[in-house]
Task: inverse folding
């Protein structure tokens, strides 16, 4: 029997092409849309290590929101 993963643990699964994939919710944007990071790898252990590092970065506050502005906004600045 599989166990459910808790909050902020992310998800880890094998894709149909044999690659392993992990995804983690890193927060929400200004409109309330969920922001996720997705990681890929060839082995489960490699992806699990990447996911663990991403979780630690999130707890330490290293995951920053990308600063995307339009050309018009850039020119105004």
Result:
């Amino acid at each position: 029997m599989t166990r459910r993963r808790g909050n902020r643990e992310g998800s880890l699964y094998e894709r149909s092409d044999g690659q392993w994939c992990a995804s983690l919710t890193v927060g929400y944007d200004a409109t309330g849309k969920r922001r996720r990071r997705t990681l890929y790898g060839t082995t489960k252990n490699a992806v699990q290590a990447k996911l663990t590092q991403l979780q630690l970065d999130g707890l330490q506050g290293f995951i920053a929101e990308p600063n995307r502005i339009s050309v018009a906004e850039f020119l105004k600045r």
